[in-house]
């Protein structure tokens, strides 16, 4: 029964996290953001990382790779 629960958690984690948006890929803690994009923390990715906290890989993957996702482009105003 326990392996089935672990498999279900991993499957849900893989389905729940997103690694990119229409504006580009999500970034982690040590990555530099693109200055032309606005980033927000992805509550969805962080939730699934914490849901898989019994496993080692999901929280590490979310924190290092996919915790901030681009949500829009900066607009430049010209006079």
Structure, briefly:
With 79 residues, this protein is of the alpha+beta class. Helices cover 42% and strands 19% of the residues.
Approximate shape: elongated
Look at the helices and sheets and give the structural class. Answer: alpha+beta
Q: For the report, how would you describe the main beta sheet?
A: 2 strands, antiparallel
Number of strands: 4
Q: Low-confidence stretches at least 5 residues in length (pLDDT < 50)? A: none
Please state the oligomeric state of the protein chains shown: single chain
Number of individual domains: 1
Q: What's the gyration radius in Å? A: 15 Å
H/E order of the elements? HEEEHHE
Commentary on this structure:
With 79 residues, this protein is α+β, with helices and mostly antiparallel strands. It has one domain (2-73). 42% of the residues lie in helices and 19% in strands. It has 3 helices and 4 strands, in the order αβββααβ. The protein has helices at 2-16, 43-51, 57-65; strands spanning 20-21, 24-25, 37-41, 68-73. The strands form 2 sheets. Strands 1-2 form a two-stranded antiparallel sheet. A two-stranded antiparallel ribbon has the order 3-4. β1 and β2 (24-25) form a beta hairpin. α2 packs antiparallel against α3 (57-65). The protein is elongated. The model has no long low-confidence stretch (mean pLDDT 76).
